[in-house]
Design a protein that fits this description.
The complex is a heterodimer of chains A (140) and B (141). Chain A has 140 residues and is an alpha+beta fold. Chain A has a single domain (3-139), classed as 2,3-Dihydroxybiphenyl 1,2-Dioxygenase, domain 1. Chain A is 19% helix and 36% strand. Chain A has 3 helices and 8 strands, in the order βαββββαβββα. Chain A has an 8-stranded mixed beta sheet with strand order 2-3-4-1-5-8-7-6. In chain A, strand 7 and strand 8 form a beta hairpin. Chain B is an alpha+beta fold. Chain B has a single domain (3-57, 67-140), classed as 2,3-Dihydroxybiphenyl 1,2-Dioxygenase, domain 1 (Roll). Chain B has 3 helices and 8 strands; from the N terminus they run E-H-E-E-E-E-H-E-E-E-H. Chain B has helices at residues 14-25, 79-88, 136-140; strands spanning 3-10, 28-31, 38-44, 49-55, 68-75, 92-96, 109-112, 118-122. An 8-stranded mixed beta sheet of chain B has the order 2-3-4-1-5-8-7-6. In chain B, strand 3 and strand 4 (49-55) form a beta hairpin. Classes of the chains: A alpha+beta (140), B alpha+beta (141). At the A-B interface, strand 1, helix 1, strand 5 and helix 2 of A face strand 1, helix 1, strand 5 and helix 2 of B.
Amino acid sequence: MAKLRHIAIAAKDPDAMADFYCKAFDFKIVRSNDGPLAYGHHLSDGTIDLAILRFKSDQIGKGMDYTGLHHFGILVEDMEESAKIVEGLGGKHYMDQSNPDRTGGFETKFYGPEGILFDVAEHPWTGTEPLPVPVKQAAE
Amino acid sequence: MPKLRHIAIAAEDPEAMAEFYKKAFDFKEVGRPNGYLADGVFLSDGTLNMAILKFKTDQLGKGMDFRGIHHFGVLVEDVEEFTKKLDSLGAEHYIDQGQSGHQAGYFEKKFFGPEHIMFDIAEHGWAGAEPLPVPVKEAAE
């Protein structure tokens, strides 16, 4: 089964917000970046990536002033297969990671029902748990 | 360490949206909340509870037409201890489970963090969500 492994927040001040969640819940900063899409910090609880980002474009049509929960991300076994399923169900492809060598973040972004943005990746977000090993494989 | 265990989406049609995520990612339906705050569908990936909800009040101040990711939830060992900590960090307490007839198991306390972003904390967990890991010392006993 695919796994939810990423939650992204749109923030005006990612530094202050990241500091709050690190202090409040002992989450750890596992990556900070200033890329073409956003500036901010990736926190981990050991399982999930909580990205606190100042976006540089209006990906969700709520305006550049929007602050709040922005999108989530799902770790899958097979990116191509999942993309076909998502598109077959009416999901709309939005963009692919521009650097195919970069892993640890989104690989493809889609809009699902009601225009809700989500990422799909087959490599775990930095600092997150990989997909569980299937029972049969684990027993071998 | 506390764990992210809940993500809530504000939807116009929770039924249709839940079907999409069930079919796309094999998430399982684990509940049908029908409460004072929202109706909808609870899904699980085996670790997190993904709540797809039609809210009945404007909790975020973004209007009743808001569609998108609404809030997240953190599973903690001790809600009272974390309430004190959050208060001291400047979080604004919003509402407790049990007030106005909220159903148990959905959340225990809601807060607004920096930039008025809402999150829940709970020590009993959401439907279909994994419990906190057993501490290494305790597991060895």
